[in-house]
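dumping this here before i forget
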Amino acid sequence: MSRKGGGIRRKPQHPSRKGPKRRTWLKRLTLLIILAPVIGVLILNLTLATSWGTGLVSKRITAHTGLPCQIDRISWWPWSGGTVSGFHLNSPKPSASSILTIREVNIDLSWRSLLAGKKRFERLEVREVRGSLSLEQLRDLLGSSRIPPALPEASPTPESIVPPDDSAPPALADNDQPNSKPTVNPSDRQSPADPASNRPPPAKSPTPKAVPPIAPVDDFEGLIVLSDIDLELYSEKEPRLSISLNGIAGELPIWGPERSGTLSISSILVGGELEERGLTLPVEWRDRYLRTTDHPMKLFGLNFNLSTAIRFVSGLPVGLQIDVPAQQMDLSPMVQGESPISLRSVTSSSRLQGYLLHPRSFNGQSHSTFAGLVINDPRDGSENHFDRGNFTARLSPAGLIVSDARAIGEEEAFLGNGFVTTSGEAAATLRIVASPERARNHQNRVAEAGLDFAFTDLVTPDRLYRDLRLEARQGTIMIDLGPDEQWVPLLPATRAILKSGPPAPSILP
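structure:
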């Protein structure tokens, strides 16, 4: 300051610049916080739209499934959910076609469930699915997949055909290891004249079940929408062995209170000729399961009751049970003209359970019985009568074991067992016991096709027998029907016998 004229003059005060700078910084910070999520979403979508971004997701899927995966485009927006376009799951063999192709998948995740730590969605839409898998590819996939967790034994109730999500993964039993071979011993079979050989296994006494705790009410609801789905399972070597499910569509409720939905199949095609149209299956969400309970259906003239259940937890545990009540079987829808086979009574019970994401985890069992089987021979009009018979099989991670398959009549009987492993090995033995007259008929019929079918006396001269052996050799099922019991391919030999003509030169060695 300075003195002038006896007064004091102060220097002018400059206003502080901290206030405007602080306000500008706060505005920029606020704008950055607002725009950061938008910029992040834009960068994420730009990344996912590139081959590098989709490649990262494809590699994760390949690491989980073991199959080459390709995705055309992925996008995700907070207000409309995620979209996957052009999903292709390919066979490990470069020359093979795609196993699964999905045109588009839309998923609308729930922010409320994500904040609560639950990975749920409000709506999942899957459109235009084409799945085509051969039996040979299925064998390779099962043989190369890792060992799954073992499942508890299933019981007849729908609640237990799905394994619990909290079950521990104990080690597999010795006879369920993938490299173990079930044994087939024809000498262990009972005589066809033994009545006890046709008795079903004794029923197990029911065991009391623990009452599960009451689950809290879940108010979150989700929906799965399926449309235009075609699935096919076929054989590369035998095209007539195929089944196709076409036009699958439906709306499936999940989570929340009890609700109902539907699943429809436009057509089921077997062998390229046998077709069933217009199937509708009601489903319901109840007790944390998406299920169908004891629903009566009719397919190809056969009445049966279907129960299914799936739980949306890790691995996607699923269960299937099919019960065929005692009934006369009408085979006319399965053949053209008059059926050469008639059955007075048939009954069956089959059960399958496992994890969808672990194909090697599936196990199950099936037991069927029949009575009054009549087979008409179109050549001479003769009839083969079988009074009774049964079929018992078990599926495990090691493969399929047919422990007992038989058809017993007064003039002849067929007794067999065998196995098929997931590694592609297979073996079976079929014993034919017949009266001398029936044995001569069989022998002459097979001889007309240029094959061998000599019988041997079975203890007494009024019964003859012949054991047929089948094995998987070089990817083909072979049977010892050649000259001097040499091995020949099964399917060409069977066709030659049924047509009563000389076999193709490729059949004989």
